[in-house]
Specification:
The structure is a single chain. This protein is mainly beta and 414 residues long. It has two domains: 112 residues, Immunoglobulin-like, CATH 2.60.40; 288 residues, TolB, C-terminal domain (Neuraminidase). The strands form seven sheets. A six-stranded mixed sheet has the order 5-4-9-8-7-6, with no helix packed on it. Strand 15 and strand 16 form a beta hairpin. The longest helix is centred in the first third of the chain and has 16 residues.
Length: 414
């Protein structure tokens, strides 16, 4: 009887925790639509059709307010009857925007104006008739020269752990930020090239600057440079691994914007060509045009909430379940609660083989996935958590080679 209850509960939990992507919308930073390159407007795009469905902010036309969280000053549209909006820091998208990220939980669109060391966001909860923007200085980070492209932040995304990540052109400034009322911004250091990159560096201006950043359901980030190079980034080690170059795009088509559609494909757009959108799979990086997609507006960045490899993460979470004892006596996770960023998993009397460890939050969003080899006898596996992981309750699942769940426990991170 108890086993049946445990099994039913585990299956129910598995169905609740597995998350699905049904958000076909992305936000796009675009020009005016007159063959221009003024990336100051915010529009909503349907990734299925590639068509613009709504304009949220249009330069010199849309009323707005922008609040500086440090000075508490508030600026509104009426202040710009005679001021140059292309140069002032008081205009939301002044000096253009090339990096944006959408946080679904807070319903905010984060971005950075070029040549300004500031994090800004649009509060979509306030509606779009009179958009409300907020801004705060990134401490100790200012571009030294208005013409210095290297330090401009041009890639941004919200990771699977719920934190935002931003990266400069040259890859030497890697930031994380929280998405609450007043974000906490941390500089994590420079990105490090993997040894297997064979000389193709994420710091190289010709091959690796610009573009956009997306995230997967297992905690990794991906840089898609303007020159079509694709790198995966491990947040903890900051190591960038070169995965390949996108094939099938027109000559001179730069990949400045990237987002993930409901099918787990990557959709890209260009800031310098008016040739619509293309989509591709991470597995082969072969681009195919989305016929009928928008060719009126060029795009400097996309931002949406979908994650790469979400279906694969769901598959692990929905694997067949066996009853798992969760009493303290039989606990396999220690220490619990976790106070120092690490915990251990006990593999005692388990068959030799390769096991998959999946850490997810209570909504089923995967925070981490790791494969480990287990030998006979008693073995413990140490797990290092992301230093920026939020405090709370998480689920640890361990699956064997047959995808049978052998451990299913909650862990509290303090």
């Amino acid at each position: 009887m108890n086993n049946k209850i445990l099994l039913t509960t585990a299956l129910l939990a598995s169905s609740i925790f597995a998350s699905a992507q049904n958000n076909k919308t992305t936000y796009a930073i675009t020009g005016d639509g007159n063959n221009d390159f003024v990336w100051m407007n915010i529009r909503q795009v349907d990734l299925t059709t590639g068509q613009v469905t709504k304009t949220l902010f249009e330069r010199s036309k849309t009323n707005f307010s922008i609040t500086d969280l440090n000075s508490k000053s508030v600026t509104t549209q009426r202040d710009f009857t005679s001021e140059n909006i292309f140069a002032t820091s008081n205009y939301p998208t002044g000096t253009f925007v090339a990096a944006a990220a959408y946080d679904k939980r807070s319903n905010k669109l984060f971005f950075t104006p070029m040549r300004r060391g500031e994090l800004r966001w649009l509060d979509l909860n306030a509606g779009t008739e009179n958009p409300e923007f907020y801004t705060m200085q990134i401490n100790n980070y200012k571009t030294l020269d208005a013409n210095d492209e290297a330090t401009n932040i041009t890639r941004m995304v919200i990771g699977a752990d719920g934190n935002g990540y931003a990266l400069s052109n040259d890859g030497n400034h890697f930031f994380s930020f929280t998405t609450g009322k007043k974000p906490v911004i941390k500089e994590l250091g420079n990105i490090i090239d993997a040894d297997i990159n064979k000389g193709l560096s994420i710091h190289n201006k010709c091959s690796s600057w610009g573009g956009d950043m997306i995230a997967d359901a297992f905690g990794k980030l991906y840089v898609i440079s303007a020159s079509h190079s694709v790198f995966s980034i491990d947040v903890n080690s900051r190591i960038a691994t070169y995965l390949g170059t996108i094939q099938g795009l027109p000559a001179n088509y730069t990949t400045n914007a990237a987002a993930v559609n409901d099918d787990g494909e990557i959709v890209v757009a260009s800031a310098n060509m008016f040739d619509g959108y293309y989509k591709l799979q991470l597995a082969d990086l072969k681009a195919v045009k989305i016929e009928g997609s928008d060719a009126k507006y060029n795009t400097s960045d996309f931002a949406n909430a979908n994650l790469l490899l979400q279906k694969e993460a769901n598959s692990l979470l929905n694997s067949k379940v066996i009853p798992v004892a969760t009493t303290p006596v039989d606990a396999r996770i220690f220490p619990n609660p976790v106070s120092n960023g690490t915990f251990n998993i006990l593999f005692d009397n388990k068959n030799e083989g390769v096991y998959t460890i999946v850490l997810s939050d209570l909504t089923g969003r995967s925070m981490m996935s790791k494969k480990v080899s287990v030998s006979s006898g008693v073995q413990t596996q140490k797990i290092n958590l992301n230093a920026h992981m939020a405090k709370g309750v998480y689920i640890v699942k361990v699956l064997d080679e047959n995808k049978t769940m052998i451990i299913n426990e909650k862990v509290v991170v303090q």
